TrEMBL record:
SMART domains: PKS_AT. This is [acyl-carrier-protein] S-malonyltransferase. Residues 12-308 form the Malonyl-CoA:ACP transacylase (MAT) domain. Coiled coil: none annotated. Keywords: Acyltransferase, Transferase. It catalyses: holo-[ACP] + malonyl-CoA = malonyl-[ACP] + CoA. Its EC number is 2.3.1.39. It is an enzyme of class 2 (transferase). Gene3D superfamilies: Malonyl-CoA ACP transacylase, ACP-binding, Malonyl-Coenzyme A Acyl Carrier Protein, domain 2.
Length: 313
């Protein structure tokens, strides 16, 4: 399966949560540009990203400062290869899940490569420090929408929050370890399935409150340009072109829910059909799209490490 050049393409960039040993290893020496991306990620973070992705250990790879840099490097390289091999494609929009939002802004020309990794390095270190202080966690809950899960948590008096509204059949909740333990029991009691993602904190919850101002202060010194095509922001589920509002939304991103359902509805409700191209080490955003009534399998592809694309059922 390949991209139809007559239809506009919406780029979907992965976030953290699904790290595997060996991810991105086949991208290291693909071209001079992919080597430059790996080098930039390693130089700015001070980490040997190649070695950590190739060998782990997993206990290190799942740590936020490593995982976010690695995911961003892989996203950036896959996008570069895809763009080089599909020069006739017209991009009509992009959306990145959680940390993937920064990859989307890079793809749209709003951030330079160096600034992309500078921001990710600062953000991931900040989030790691906050997670050590707050001791929070997250759970992926399948089989319910935001309203239903919110009502269940309120009924049980559980102080967990909706971190990601992924679809009408999947939510992610975050909170303290006690709140997540109680939430897990309530969810199981309601006959819903839950799993723990490979993250080390309660992202997109009030446990990250003290990180918002430092994020604002750092982003104030980053050159953000208006994106060349629509980038839907996680905080609102809507496109934004004003650099100042982009900075503020990226800061609030630490504590606000990821509005993925609203973002996908925005693209699916367009009068002219779009094609989705997932940019990720392993396809999972496409699978979420199957929860949307207006989506069909023919509307999406996954960008592979050789620059080609494939359909995902």
């Amino acid at each position: 399966m390949d991209i139809n050049a007559t239809k506009p393409v919406v780029l979907l960039f992965a976030g953290q949560g699904n790290p595997v040993i060996g991810m991105g290893s086949d991208l290291w020496d693909t071209s001079a540009e992919t080597r430059r991306i790996w080098d930039c990620a390693s130089d700015i973070s001070g980490l040997d990203i190649r070695r950590l992705c190739a060998r782990g250990p997993m206990t290190r790879l799942v740590q936020t400062p490593v995982q976010q840099i690695a995911v961003t490097a892989i996203n950036t390289m896959l996008f570069t290869l895809y763009r080089e091999s599909h020069g006739d494609v017209i991009f009509s929009g992009a959306c990145g899940h959680s940390v993937g939002e920064y990859s989307a802004f890079y793809a749209a020309g709003a951030l330079t490569l160096e600034d992309l990794f500078r921001v990710i390095h600062f953000r991931s270190t900040l989030m790691h420090d906050l997670s050590l202080a707050s001791k929070g966690s997250m759970l992926v809950v399948k089989g319910c929408d935001r309203a239903g899960l919110t009502a269940l948590l309120a009924q049980k008096g559980i102080e967990a929050e909706i971190s990601c509204d992924n679809s009408r059949k999947q939510q992610v909740i975050g909170g303290t370890l006690t709140a997540l333990r109680d939430a897990g029991q309530a969810v199981a009691g309601a006959g819903l399935e839950c799993t723990k993602p490979g993250v080390s904190g309660a992202w997109h919850t009030r446990l990250m409150n003290s990180g918002v101002q430092p994020m604002r202060d750092f982003l104030a010194g980053v050159d953000i340009r208006p994106p060349q095509f629509d980038v839907l922001m996680n905080v609102t589920g809507l496109p934004e072109t004003n650099p100042e509002i982009i900075r503020e939304n990226l800061s609030l991103h630490l504590t606000h829910s990821v509005q993925w359902t609203a973002s996908m509805d925005h693209f699916l409700d367009k009068p002219a059909p779009v094609q989705f191209a997932e940019i990720s080490n392993k396809a999972y955003l496409i699978h979420l799209l199957h929860d949307f009534a207006k989506f069909t399998s023919e509307m999406a592809v996954h960008c592979k490490t050789d620059g080609t694309v494939s359909g995902v059922k």
